[in-house]
């Protein structure tokens, strides 16, 4: 794994991109609303430098066709980079900060027959419901979903259901993203271990991994 940030020297960044076999977009602060053509209306603590770095890396990943997995902010970045927008603030989904209290959880309903459902619930891929953690205050709804993405997981909200898992509409393109934090195992169902395994297998070019996904 080669972590990159906006302070990574250009030569190291170029070398990492040349060798990249998969792209993991992780959690973090809000994306700049200017990225999706809006003025600030709830976004906070934006990281414009990180936005630009991830946009550049995303373009290389898509051009080379390497697998992409987005988590939390990364889920939102995937949607924005593919032409979607964000709801800049929703109430009731942030919960206590990580390590500062009991994690907030809510249901995630997987779309029957989706790639995500086949990965997380291979023996029961028909409309499974999982309980996931919630650490976000921004969101995606169906009307703000990017072209080329399919909503494969929905979560309830009093103002309308939220899209919280997406996958590429192109069957040969490995782009998956989830709004929750599956790496926080104390508040994540064990099924999400399969998501990481499938991503790693795909990044290794594993035929088995690509077939499972």
Structure, explained:
With 213 residues, the protein is an alpha/beta fold. It has six helices and seven strands. A hairpin with a 6-residue loop joins strand 5 and strand 6. The longest helix has 17 residues, at 48-64. It is globular and about 45 Å long. The two termini are 21 Å apart. The relative contact order is 0.16.
Record the SSE blueprint:
Blueprint: H1 10-19, E1 23-25, H2 48-64, E2 68-71, H3 73-81, E3 105-110, H4 115-120, E4 129-133, E5 149-155, E6 162-168, E7 175-178, H5 192-203, H6 207-212
Parallel strand pairs: 1-2, 2-7
Antiparallel strand pairs: 3-4, 3-5, 5-6, 6-7
Number of strands: 7
Mean pLDDT across every amino acid position: 90
Helix content: 25-40%
How do the SSEs run, as a string of H and E? HEHEHEHEEEEHH
Strand order of the largest sheet: 1-2-7-6-5-3-4
> Major β-sheet, in short?
7 strands, mixed
What are the main properties of this structure?
213 residues; alpha/beta; seven-stranded mixed sheet; 6 helices; 7 strands; disordered C terminus
